[in-house]
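Progress report, Aim 2. The chain analyzed during this reporting quarter is listed below.
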Amino acid sequence: MNAAGVTVNLPAANAAFRNTFFTTPCPTNNATCPAGGFILDNNRFDFRSIYPAGFTPRFVGVTESLTAVAGVKGEATSGLTYDVSATISENSLELSMYDSLNASFGPQSKTSFEYGAFKQKLENFNVDLTYPMDVGLAGPLTLAGGFEWRKESYTVPTGELQSYAAGPYATVQRLFTQTAPGVFAPVTTLPTGVTNIAVPPASSGYAGAPPSSAGTWDQSNYAIYVDLEADLTDRLSGGIAARFEEYDTFGTATVGKISALYKATETLSLRGSVGTGFQAPSPGQSNLQNVTTNFVAGNQVQEGIFPVASGVARYYGAVPLKPADATNYGVGFILRPFTGTSLTVDAYQIDVQNRIFITRPFLVTAADLLVQPSLSLVGAGANIRYFTNGLDTSTKGIDIVATHSTKLLGARVNFTMAYNRNENEVTKSRSTVISNAQIITIENVAPKDRLNLSSNWSWGEWSVNARANYFGEWRNEQDYPGQVFGAKTTVDLDVSYTFAEKYTVTIGAQNLFSTYPDKIAQSSTINVFPISGGLADGQVYPRSGGPFGMNGGFGYVSLKANF
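Predicted structure tokens for the chain:
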């Protein structure tokens, strides 16, 4: 209770700071004080000697990207067009951390850690061909076809030893006291003020990958496709397409699409389509390992995502991932009531089977550690997840886009309104791996309503863009049970000036008025501390920030050159 008589709930200290680390090991080859044991004496250590006021790990990531594209395209005298290209790209993310610790190493713990460079690489070769044919229809029948070869690879580096390892204090210390020269007895009662608990392994904040989890995984596939499009009559156009793919990891798949456009009047056109889709798991989804730190009642616990083929994931029921399949339907119209104005309205439904999603958390117990030793990477009390084909979903929605272009005071002005309404539904799920909270989150984490209003004013070398973005309410039941985050509107603005015909300088701001999502609210399951207005880990706003982030507004200046 503070001076004003108000009760203030403070979070408990990090468990590593509450533990007493005894540092005198048992003598070598002593039958009464076995190897791995410690002597209860005055040689003690605690982490306050390194971090008197606690610590906040500082995460550092250095990204490097490289992309190279080469190709040739053209048209033959017969009307055949060709586009042949090759692409190679690589993105690396080198991670490190400082102002941290690996509590399980006690006084031997480092305070900074290197995790290595994670890499995603893509190689792609593509051939696209089109050929017009006169077959007696209202317009030429365009025959298109192509071939694509693609290879993806994902690399997980081995972190340095203490970034992932469990040190001697990852289990409860076996303490002994000397009863006679060279003779020791187990300690059955701890002295007052002494705490002897197991502390979590790996670096606090983020854990590196051990050698058993590091490596490079790749996946390659080739695809061929064919497409036919034509004006069947003066008013009706149609198209049909099919694509065949073969993966060296998941086998084959064939998808297709049928579409049509009917010009009902000079101002109104109707359109519709039916298609199927296919998404193969990426090497990253199949082999991702990511261990981070969370706090529960002041206790440091590890949260781990493990590859589906790992012993940890298999222990909790993981099976190899398989591709997700989708069927989509769309119908809509295009209306051009007068020059410079258009309105499009499209309704759609997308059904996904075997959607790839992350599982609910599985709690690691002391009994689990005995059965599955590889869980020592995270320790008891940790939460384990992995990717799985755990659910089917159906998304129904409508898109409305209206545009108007005019002149005002000698300048060109364009107005755009775009509205989207979405309804997500989980139609099937595996209750053993997907929780009810996850289902609620999937159905509500994206706002059901989105509205963008934008305008562009251009006059000579000057251009001004203004946009208002409305985001409807949303909900994340997994992290913030029961709370509905309210609707918000953000504003973006930029001004551009082009000089020397090819240089454009832009000054702008995104989220100009620094709109923030609702703050996390106190509830029966969430404790907001009055002294900070946030959770025990410092969260004031939802960690994801919702649909527009939690960092408020920011300004920028850019220079673009066209040659």
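Residues 13-56+167-197 form one domain. The chain is about 5% helix and 50% strand. These observations will guide the mutagenesis work planned for the next reporting period.
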